[in-house]
Fold:
Amino acid sequence: MTIPAQQRFPALRKAFGFVAGHPLAVLVCSIIVLAPCFWHHHIQAADLPSHLYNAWLAQLVQSGQAPGVQIVPQSSNVLFDMMLSSLFHVFGPVAAERIAVSTAVLIFFWGGLALCSAAAGHAAWRISPLLAMTCYGFMFNMGFFNLYLSVGFSLFALAILWSGRRWDFVAIVPLAALIWRAHLLGTAGLLVLGGFLIAVRRLPLRRQIIVTASMVALYFVARWYVLHHFYILERENKLLFWMLGGEQFVLYSQLYTWVALAVVALAAIILALSLHRDGRQGLLRVAVWLQIYAVVAIAVLFAPGGIDHPTLGMMGYLPDRASLYTAVLLCALLTAVRPAKWQAVALGVVAVAFFALLYLDTGALDRLEAKVEQVVAPLKPGQRVVANLLPPRSRIFVQHITDRACVGHCFFVANYEPSSGQFRIKAAPGNRVVEGNQAVVVAMQRGVYQVQARDLPLSEIYQCGPELNSICLHELQAGEYNGQAAYDAIVAFRERAQEKRGTGESKAQQSPPGR
Structure:
């Protein structure tokens, strides 16, 4: 199978021509896609406050106001942080996070649309609702923006590898440099998926299947090696839509599971109807994208929850990270089968439901953060704090909200980045700005750290009531466990609830039966 004539266009010239020919459509689409970055006071993405906090720490380090903390050279996992730090210095924290995140979202969305358009041979507008959902999926809400950026840039590179020719490939060199600076996953995605596209782009179907089978075999060999040479973090879920990319749409509650199931079911219907309509020609048209999608889906299904190595470090959420590619490749596959207008409308309806849920849940988190900011406000400048904030039944953690509330005001000593060794901010043991021992940071985050005299003064922000934004401040004492106040509050609330239920039952038993 060779590439159809309409897919052998010069990729860069085609892309620039598209933007020049449809400037208003590009502008309006970009504004719509960026709406979730502006609909609350803060962008709610779990790890983003930590990135912003460390951008502030970087300024303190450069001005000599953070003794024991330093900025070290690092080649990867730094691009978003460097961009955020530069913007912070010029525009301040609020504008910096909006500009940096908006830039990352546009890179990811248009990179995804470029890949989908390359798969289809034409502008892939009909898949934009599903692609917009992917932009604001699990990886965005977890705030893993270095990884998010690396994948976004890699999507542009993959589009060029599939549909480019001659001088188009020169653009992959600067893209590869940006991908590496952002995160290793994007580099791995470019090498593996790009290699696959190059290998199969001019092969007949039978040889494509041989290449696909070889990739799957190599994956299981690599998996065997990793399982026997790395410490493995177990994973909790291996559901079907985890494998198929729907996992990216499961966020704050069980309601998102229905959204994910709707996406997977609708994708299956679109694919089945298209193949039934176009027969063998349709299968040949989508064969490459069906195979690459299947390879990544299999990799996600059998990936461990995470890996840890004494030299290479730790990386968690492996299947969740990799499924970001699965979700984008699902978009490319659906574009390649040429969905009908009604199918695009159905995807739009699912997208509306998804973003409605997201607006409500991130709005609740925004109100929580406002309460945290209110509690932190009376603290003296430079006060050291930890937090114990754990919303129930959510895949997205919220403890880093305190990081952002402390920017310019207090030191959140349980920030995990400096002690992890995987970011450019490093902390020396014994400093008063941020904890440098990873084990201590983990204990603090879990609420099981026993406070030492050297830690004082130290305050804890914790959830002291049944409502998400029931937030209190407690000054810790030496010998006290930092999660004890939160635990006592939960126990007290449950006891009061049981007493209330017991009183109600007693009154019901004493009241005379109705006629």
Notes: The longest helix spans residues 255-302. Confidence is low (pLDDT under 50) at residues 1-9, 510-515.
